[in-house]
Amino acid sequence: MNEVKDLEGWLMPWLNQYVPQFAKLAYTGIALGLIVIMSLGIHFVLHRVVLRWVEGRTRGTQRIWRRAFFERKLFGRLALTLQGIIIYIQAGLWLESGTLLLPSIQTAANLWILLYALLSLYSLLDALLDIFRQRPAMRAFPLRGIFQSVKLLASIFIGLLIVSTLIGKSPVILLSGLGAMTAVLMLVFKDPILGLVAGIQLSANDMLAVGDWLEMGRYGADGEVIDIGLTTVKVQNWDHTITTIPTHALISDSFKNWRGMSESGGRRIKRSLRLDATSVRFLDEEDIRRLQKAHLLDGYLSDKVREISRHNSEQPADMSSLVNGRRLTNLGTFRAYLAALLRQHPHIHQQMTLMVRQLESGSEGIPIEIYAFTSTTRWAEYENIQADIFDHIFAVLPEFDLRLHQNPTGFDLRMLAGVSAAGSYKKVV
């Protein structure tokens, strides 16, 4: 108040001399002019000099936090908050407390300060989110949902302060009245509250992180998680469409996370081919000599022939009958060939489960299943490896005198019709 008295004591005699009727009004106008001029000067210094100088020093810097703070306009909003504080102080210094203009300016300044303080907090949280996203160790945490919760709470708190400033009442009075509105608030903010709790559970249990491959059939989601928010999780599907899932649904419903597959370094091949049961038979000596030319079967057949010969020589059974003794089959030899093929394949993970098994046969033939893991988890490479293996399997089946089981096709029917027509023609002739 000493500054007000000094300014008033210096100006008022001069104003009373020249404009005695409008001395008070003229003094108020001069005080407002000083406030505007000083505010514009401070605005120019902060935004045109200080911030530009700091921004120029951060250009080309490798420090992520500097770039993030400027991209999110943190310093600019802090400067505007500081300007509001300066205007509030200036109004108290230059204007008399008895004037009606002082509380109006201070109220407007208070609203200005609260608004830009909230926006500054938003910028700070967004900048911190950008910084943490650059750190691999922090990507597993649903920081976006947590920061959105902080923004929501800060917005409610600032909103209460703004209302209390406008009505001139203490915010404690407003808070005391919120007790009766608890049920309404719980209903309005149900999704954010559920999302906040779900985000904490997802993070604490390490269930989901940005970058994971998520599959959730109920919501049609099958792709990479690109964002975990307070109320929704965004998934970019394999066809580049975007699916949004309520965050709390990830806790209440089940979903499949492919992160374990990606981190293991191998992707599973679990596919079967069905063989015609009528093509299964014992191998004769000529078949064994022919198949021993395959380097993948040479060692297996030699060892197996010795083992079976030793076993059969110890049995007093008549070996001229196929039902007596042990014999090699084309199906068993084919399974051994597939196992050897997978063990020497350069793109099959040899430290993971690898087997060729025969499943229960039925009307659709005899299923032979390949169960192995590729040494890559990339989708396109995985599909190419799997296709190459089965291309080779289909092509090598005739070497074992085995046939695939399949329903009759149009080609089969045409061949059958052609044979029938040829037989009828011979009968006529």
TrEMBL record:
By what name is this protein known?
A: Mechanosensing system component YbdG
Drop me one GO molecular function for this one: mechanosensitive monoatomic ion channel activity
Lipid bilayer topology: Multi-pass membrane protein
Q: Which compartments does it reside in?
A: Cell inner membrane
| Recorded family membership | Belongs to the MscS (TC 1.A.23) family.
Domain Mechanosensitive ion channel MscS C-terminal, by residue range, is: 338-402
**SUPFAM superfamilies registered for this protein in UniProt:** Sm-like ribonucleoproteins (SSF50182)
Query: Coiled-coil ranges per the record?
Result: none
Natural source organism: Oceanimonas pelagia
Which is an annotated Pfam family here? MS_channel_3rd
Q: List GO BP terms, alphabetically.
A: cellular response to osmotic stress
Q: Which UniProt keywords apply?
A: Cell inner membrane, Cell membrane, Membrane, Stress response, Transmembrane, Transmembrane helix
Question: Which residue range or ranges hold the Mechanosensitive ion channel MscS domain?
Answer: 191-259
Q: Which Gene3D superfamilies match?
A: 2.30.30.60
